[in-house]
Amino acid sequence: MKGIIYKYPIKITEEPTYLELPLDARFLSAIEQNNKIIAYVQQSIDLMHKAQYMVRIVGTGQVFDTYMWVFFATVKQGSFVWHLYWKRV
């Protein structure tokens, strides 16, 4: 099976960002680029079998419900440090 890595902008809000991705999507990392948070996802090129994913940004010291969320990156943006989590809906 052939794969590809795409990048997706993630909103810096308390609400999660929703992404429709192939079922085999694997969140690799995230960076700050041009004052935006970008998540890198490895995925197949099969676009027929998709699922809805949520990505959440949590600031250091912020309280949130960790149930079913999977950590995948920490990103520094100016004086802020963000922690990114994902889960399939």
Give a description of the structure.
- The chain has 89 residues and is an all-beta fold.
- It has one domain.
- The protein has no helices and seven strands.
- The protein has a four-stranded antiparallel sheet with strand order 2-5-7-6, with no helix packed on it. Strands 1-4-3 form a three-stranded antiparallel sheet, with no helix packed on it.
- A hairpin with a 2-residue loop joins β6 and β7 (80-88).
- The chain is globular, with a radius of gyration of 13 Å.
- The two termini are 24 Å apart.
Task: Report Rg.
Answer: 13 Å
Q: Strand order across the biggest sheet?
A: 2-5-7-6
What's the N-to-C terminus distance? 24 Å
Name the assembly state: single chain
> Secondary-structure element order, as H and E?
EEEEEEE
**Coarse structural class:** mainly beta
Supply the number of helical segments.
0
Flag low-confidence runs: none
What's the β-strand tally?
A: 7
Total number of distinct structural domains: 1
Mean pLDDT: 95
Helix content: under 10%
What can be said about the biggest beta sheet? Answer: 4 strands, antiparallel
Measured by DSSP, the beta-strand proportion falls in: over 45%
The backbone outline, from C-alpha atoms, is globular
